[in-house]
Amino acid sequence: MKIEDLLKSPSEWVRTEGPNGKIVLSSRVRFARNIRGYPFPGWAKKAERQKLLEIMRPFVEGLPEMTEHFSDSMDNISAILKQVLVERHLISREHAAKNVGSGVVINDRETISVMINEEDHLRIQAIKSGLQLKNIFKTIDKVDTELEEHLDFAFSPKLGYLTACPTNVGTGMRGSAMLHLPGMVLSDQINQVVQAVNKLGLAVRGLYGEGTEALGNVFQVSNQTTLGEKELEVIDRLNKVILQIIEHEDNARMTLLEKKPKLIYDQIGRAYGVLGNAHTISSKEALNLLSLVRMGVDLEIFPATARAAVDELFILSQPAHVQKAAARKLTAEERDTWRADLIRAEVANIAKPNLGDRPQLDSGSAESE
Amino acid sequence: MLCDICKKNEAKIHLSHLAEGKMLKLDLCENCAKAKGVDVEEGFSPSDLLVGLGAAEEIRVESPGAQCPVCGFTQADFKKTGRLGCSACWETFSAGLASLLKAMHKGDHHVGKVPAKAMHTLALSGKVRELTERLDNAIREEKYEEAAQIRDEIRELESKMKRTGNATRSAG
After folding, report:
1. What is the pLDDT of residues A281-317, one digit of tens each?
2. Which of A163, A268, B48, B78 could bond to A168 as cystine, CB 3.0-4.6 Å?
3. Is B171 in Cβ contact with A151 (below 8 Å)?
4. Predicted ipTM?
5. Angle A181-A185-A186 (CA atoms, 0-180°, nearest 5)?
6. Which of residues 124-163 of B touch A (CB under 8 A)?
7. Could you tell me if B30 lies within 8 Å of chain A, comparing CB atoms?
8. B52 and A CB contact within 8 Å
């Protein structure tokens, strides 16, 4: 299929209908694999990379999971569309920088993507909405076993799957989940959680934004180690930690509502107001405000039907998606205008915040304590 | 707090990593973090940082002058990129990599998935080991007839392993 057809509708995982979808936006598992006897992509010469791409690509395209797929060499994909793939988590930033000799194969539902000649010869990944790491692991394990019938993977009995970077050797597996944690950010608990999770050998980082800032209150939790532990043990550990984070986030939101309801209603109301009326908005501001409206949906201040629109806007308001919608390259100012137009139109369909019989003025005393 | 590397700029990136009960802490400024290959986008992977800071040194000490006979990769290349050249590099630089892996992972050997082909070879080589032991015993006990039988069995298994090895290679 053509990339235009693939990208026409938002990825399946964006619709957060999966288990624990209120807090866990999506889960992802990837395997790193290499072919015995060929240099890793970063060290291989262009001709070697091209040759190996030709060898591997038909097997990837022939996977039963890839019956309907998009497949192309990276030099055939425009810079903006590569960036769109990055924003949809279908390829890595590093892979977007690749050209001749690297490729990508993605199934029509955008749940499985295989990067060819990224840092390793193969990066096989699956992504689904909500928290379902074990399911995803099963999918990717099957795909891996199917590929293994045709390809001779570099494997050592002692060190497992051999990878370009020592951080991936062993299982070559990285599992991760994207979590929406506005409650813990607003109540200043996020740093403690990050530190606690780091101590368990897992990494937490902001998903959007540069450096240490986490735009949109979206964080990614992933395993750091790949040697000395079975795949399912790692998945299990990740799962347990994420379930705990979900509990903390729920508690943080409840505590905020009890102690500072005005602050929460004010922030959500203002976010709704700005998104519904802005005529120019940066992606940073958009992500942060969308996060608050999303929490408003969770707290039933907005109707549940608004969730799909807000989740889509998380992706559609990112720079490459805005330019794809405009069908041309835009300057930063133009992007901000386009983005505001897009968001305004969507937010117009969401009913005004409804606080119902929630604690209002009388709870003000709790705040002044 | 100043950066641990340049000791000049304010440290903005703080990494901590628990390995073998020891807490590793690093505070870096953005420039040094970037220079050391800490991919801020990819997150704070302490292991990546270890690759950048100490690992290349260790490899140099433990495998002086080593060059991968298969792909020509050297320790200097590893220092530059933090990545290896090919799967054979894992053998070439194994001495230096061992301590690095110990620092960044939970264990020093793989316990996860094994490709079916490798599983077959693994099983065969286990069998060969067992037979070799029996062969030694038979010789020690001067049971030469039994020894000859075991020797033939080992030869057969070894040729079988060779055949599967070739088959997988040609399929790749």
Report:
1. 999 999 999 999 999 999 999 999 999 999 999 999 9
2. A163
3. yes
4. 0.84
5. 115
6. none
7. yes
8. no
